[in-house]
Every structure is written in C-alpha cells, then in structure tokens.
Specification:
Length: about 230
C-alpha cells in the first residue's frame, strides 16, 4: 500500500516535471492508471489515494472489477483490442474507448450506447510505426475514419491513440509521438482535444510532444504477471 502511494506520487511528479520542462501548464495531462491484471482491492486503494481514471484491456476482467467497485466514482477507459461481439458491453460499461480501428466497431458502439448516457468518448488507434503485427489504422486511413466516426451521434470523437514500438531512444520516442500529434493537427477537426499517448517508460517524451492523456500501468502498480488472453 505504501509502495502504491509512493509509485503514484512518483508518476504524478514525473508528469509535473515533464510539464514544467517544456513550459506546459500544470495538470494539462490526465493520468489513466492502467490496472489490467490488478485485483479490485488495488484499484480501490489507488482510488483512495485520489486516482479516478482507470484503463482496462480485457473486458471480462474489467467487468468483474466494475461490479466490485460500483460504489466508486471511477472513469473507465477501455484500451484493449475490440472484438465486434463485445461492443454492447463496452458501450454499456465504459466512459472511454481508445482503440477504435475500424468503422464497423464504431457503428456498433454508436448503436449500442444506452440512450440515458452521455455519448461514449472514443479515440482512433493509429498504427504509427506501420508495423504489420500491430493494431490500429494506418496514418493514411485516419482522416476518412475520423470523418465517419465524428458523424456518429452517440459517440464523441476525442482524438487519437497510439502505442509506438518500445525503444529506449528518446529521440525515436519523440518522433513517433510527434507523428501522432501532427496527424491530429492535420485533421483540422474542431473538438478533438485528446492525444492518448505515453506509458510508464516514455511518458516524458509524450508530454514533450503534447500528449493530453498518459496510460501508465507498471510505474504505478509494479510489474505485471505475463499477459493473458
Ligand atoms: C498495458 C498498457 C499500457 C500500460 O503500459 P505500462 O508500460 O505498464 O505503463 C498502456 N496502454 C496500453 C494500450 C496497454 O495495453
């Protein structure tokens, strides 16, 4: 618990220092705590330390935690790959979906967003390095998809998300994040206010390139057990 508190403070401090280093205002970057594989009790502990936004990758696992934490005022972000037969639950249970990579998924989320709720916040995931095995749309396909998603009334398109190939070279980190920022700016669409980029190992580079939302897991919760499906 003490370790969680220290980690969370350290991550907030890293974000603040990075904001200061490039002259950005304090609190211009929102912190989503990526809690995949962590039990509900750990999320509750982070909540008690002031963390409100959590990111999950696996729907089934997320739903179990959502049920256990229904008494808390959490903003839930879905950041994992989307199967089209799971869109209804995503539309019902999340506040944000970061990983839109095709129009069919967006249309289903739009149709399935419950009428009583605010439009679902979404980002389009971009395969910024063009790696064949990675999910996300190609940079060349972003503009067309963004126009189509923006026209869906039950979704609110907020911006772009990327998971660049890991590298320890800060210039390469920044180059990838810069490409995502330039893509967003190039869309020239009003209302897009979100760059979802930056994780435990590269959040400083992301802040320097204008991220508005970092997704941080390991630096808050410690190393995860190997990923499950
Ligand atoms: C796991 C994950 C993160 C967090 O990564 P860390 O390196 O643990 O900070 C961020 N974004 C996505 C999409 C993830 O799957």
């Amino acid at each position: 618990m003490l370790e969680l508190q220290e980690n969370l403070q350290a991550v907030r401090q890293r974000i603040r220092a990075a904001e200061q280093a490039c002259g950005r205002p304090e609190d211009s970057v929102r912190l989503v705590a990526v809690s995949k594989t962590q039990p509900a009790a750990v999320l509750r502990a982070a909540y008690d330390l002031g963390q409100r936004e959590f990111g999950e990758n696996y729907l089934q696992e997320a739903m179990e935690k959502q049920d256990l934490l229904a008494d808390l005022d959490i903003v839930w972000h879905f950041i994992g790959p989307i199967q089209s037969n799971k869109t209804r639950l995503l539309a019902e249970r999340f506040d944000w979906v970061h990983s839109i990579d095709r129009l069919k998924i967006a249309q289903r989320l739009n149709d399935q967003r419950p009428p009583g709720r605010a439009p679902l916040n979404v980002c389009i995931q971009v395969n910024i390095g063009g790696e064949p095995t990675k999910s996300g749309v190609t940079p060349a396909a972003v503009a067309e998809l963004a126009q189509a998603v923006a026209a869906l009334p039950r979704l609110r398109l907020r911006g772009l998300m990327a998971i660049p190939a890991p590298t320890a070279d800060e210039r390469e980190q920044r180059a990838a994040f810069r490409r995502l920022r330039e893509l967003l700016e190039g869309l020239g669409m009003p209302g897009l206010d979100t760059l979802s980029m930056g994780m435990s190992d590269d959040l400083e580079a992301a802040v320097a390139e204008g991220t508005t939302l970092v997704r941080v897991g390991t630096a808050i919760f410690g190393r995860r057990p190997p990923a499950k499906g």
